Structures are given as structure tokens and as C-alpha cells.
Hints:
The protein is mainly α. It has one domain (15-470): Amino acid/polyamine transporter I, CATH 1.20.1740. The protein has 20 helices and no strands. It is globular, with a radius of gyration of 22 Å. Bound molecules: phenylalanine. Residues 25-26, 28-31, 105, 108, 247-248, 250, 253, 255, 341, 344-345 line the site of phenylalanine.
Amino acid sequence: MAAAGATATEGWSSRWGFILAATGSAVGLGNLWRFPSQAGENGGGAFVIFYIICVVLIGLPVLLSETLIGRHGKGDAIESTKVVARDSGASTAWSALAGIGMLGAFLILTFYSVIAGWVLYYIGLFAGDVVSSVQNGAVLGGAFQGQSLEQIQDHLPALFANNPLMLGMHALFMAITVYVVARGVHGGIEKIAVYLMPTFFLLLIGITIYSLATGAAGEALGFLFAFDPARLLKPDVMLAALGQAFFSLSLGSAMMITYGAYADRKTNLASTSTIIAAADTSVAIIAGLAIFPIVFAAGLAVDSGPTLMFQTLPASFQTMPAGSFIGFLFFLMVFFAALTSSVALLEAPTAWVMKRFNLARGVATVLLGGIAFAIGILSALSFNLLADWHPLNFSIFEGQNFFDITDTLTGKILLPLSALLVAVFVGWIADKRLTDHENGISGGLHQTWRFLVAWLCPLAVGAILVYGLLG
Ligand code: PHE
């Protein structure tokens, strides 16, 4: 285990280690659970097109800016930002951008682990179903034979009604996250990414082929890619797409600054960031191609939102060949993706706490994981006992329970605010010689990046913030 405050000396073993870990952090519940539900609720095609535009024009420039700050500063996110500010003759108060992001990452972790706990439960549910289908000699049949659609969908409310089980799953997922992060950047975070990410990609491709071959592929493709200009210009669809791009690329959460600091000085950050963004976006779209054909084939609603993955999809597996086995693999894949993201969410604050309070990595992770678990209990209980508890019943938080508040506070306020500050800082404040010589691009591409970071990103992100706050 690393000594206290040794973050700067830790690092990825290679450029691919960095790419896999950062892609692992980006690819998560955001791609598999949030993207399909957002696309479903926002009308499909128009949302998808705008999402891709947002990733390219806004997400990618900010992603490059964040990794750049980290790699220049080589410390935890706050320290790295201070170093860049100091080297640019600017106020170190700019490190607030990392502080806000880190708080956002920590708060996301509190509820991310709750949802990932549901995923663990569904792995168990499908594993049990695989066993019973083998016993009944019906392995090739659909999932949950003999259960009605309502009974299948009731597995989620049944979980919500069982607090020890729900909190137990939340605790289990958090414990696994803490264990990985405690083992260090190279020995824990990079190691699981190197094993889990390739496995994840194989599973995703396999399940997608299965889904396109056996499900309603035509309907799903039409839904995801149909171009409807009338919907494209709707501000709420545009803003939903921009918010989703941010969450999915892990931007504004101090996380890419933290991971950037572990990158070698020779790594080309522009091409690396492009690979990460391209992989993340492809996974979101492929996840749509895996999920929607199955849901359409079963004739269920595509706009069921957050419960799409936990209620609609399992019900859909009933009509699919080898449904229990595929369902089991599907949730296993979601778990892998969620774990490589949750370790990133924990690593950002851990790196800072180790340095700031001079704590050993193991102590810092157990402490932060424990606090995140405790706060997360309030999010878990938001699905039953505390469903009607509205602790901040004003403005955008009106009518929201604890889970909703944490989601809104991070997604609509903290992440966009941190990303806005990153864009202004890199676009206007940081020394250009410093940012420009370390990013690995030149010529027209470089000019374009500068323009996007200085102008388009602050304006667009400022717009999500204002719109998000107004309502
Ligand atoms: N990008 C992750 C996902 O898509 C979530 C995340 C956000 C992870 C911010 C780290 C930091 O699930």
C-alpha cells in the first residue's frame, strides 16, 4: 500500500493503462442505465444526434482541458489546479474548480452505489433464474418462466420494500469499491480496468448481436437514428443531451484532473482524450442498440425512464431465447462498468484527503467510503421510508426527496459549475504557452480547440447552469 501523501509518485504503467482506466470511469451506469432512459424519454433520434454534437464540440475540449490541468500539476485535483494557476501567475483560488468537482464526485458516489447495489441484486436474481431454468431443462427458454409480467416488474418494488437487502447490496458495492481503491492506482484501479474493460466490451458486443438478431432491430434503429428536426430545436432536449454528455464523460467532477495527473509527460493528451470520448459515446449508442430491440420486441414502453433497465428490460427477457442467461450476463456487464466508474468517483477525493490530512491510502478510502455509504443510506431510503421527505423544499429542489436532490445538485449545479470554471480557466486564465505546449495538437485543430474552450464551452455550459437553476 502506498505511503501517505504519495499520490504524485503513483501512476499508470502505460498509456493503455490510462486509456482503459479513464474509459472505465467514463463508461458506467451513465451509458447503460441513464443514456437509454434519457433517449427513450426525449424522443430518440433528435436527442442522440444532439448528444453526439455535444460530446464533440463541448465534452471533448473540456475533457482535454481537465487532463491537461492534472498532467501539468501532477498532484491531487486541487493541488494540480493550484500548480497551473501559480505557473500562470493567477490566483490559486481557481483550485475551487477542483474542490467543487470533488464534492460532486463524492456526492455522486453516495447514490451511484445504491443503484449499483440494485444491479448486484439483479445479478443474483438472474443467477437464480439460470439455476432454475437448468433444473427445469429450459435453458434456452425465456427468463422467469411461469411469472406474469407484473410479477417480473415487481422484483424492483420488492427490493425497495426490503431495506436490509437494499442497504446490504449498497454496502457490498461500496466495500468492493473501497477495496479496489485502497490497493492503489496501479495495483487496484488500473488492474481492474485492464481485466474488466475488455471483458465488458466482449459482453456488450455479444449481447448487442444477440439483441439485434433476435429482437426488433428495425424499430430500434429507427427510434435511435430517425432525424426529426422539429424535436432537435427543443431546448429541454438539447439541455438534457448536454447534461448527459457531461455525466457520461465524467466531466466537472475533478476525476479527469485526478486521472490526468497519473499520466506520463510523454502521453499525447489530445489523442488519448479523443479515444476516451469516442469509446464512451460508442458504448452509449451500442447500449441503446442492445436494449431497445429487446424492449420493442416485447412491445413494452421505451419511455419508462429510470426503471427501463430494472423493470422493462427484465420483463423483455422473458420472450427472448436463453433469456435468463443473457439477463445474467447483461447485469454482470453493468456491474463491471459501474465498478470502474465508482472507483474513479472515490479516487478523486481520496487523492486529496491523503495529501491534505497526511493519511495512508487504506485509511483514507475506508473513511471516505464509510461516509459515502452513510450518506447513501438516505438515498436508498428515498425509495421507501423517506420517499416523501423533502429536506430542501424550495426552487429546483421543490418536491424532491434526498436521492433526487443529490442527483439534481450534482448534475445540474456542481458538475456544470466546475466544468464552466475549467473552460474559463484554461480558455482565458492559464498561461497559453503552458496549456498549448502540453496538449499534443497544433495548427488548425489547435485553433479550433482554443476557440471551443474559450467561447463555446463557457456559453453552452453557462446555459445549462442557468436553465438548470431556473427550473
Ligand atoms: N461517467 C460515469 C458514468 O457514465 C459516472 C461518473 C461521473 C464517473 C463523474 C466519474 C465521475 O456512469
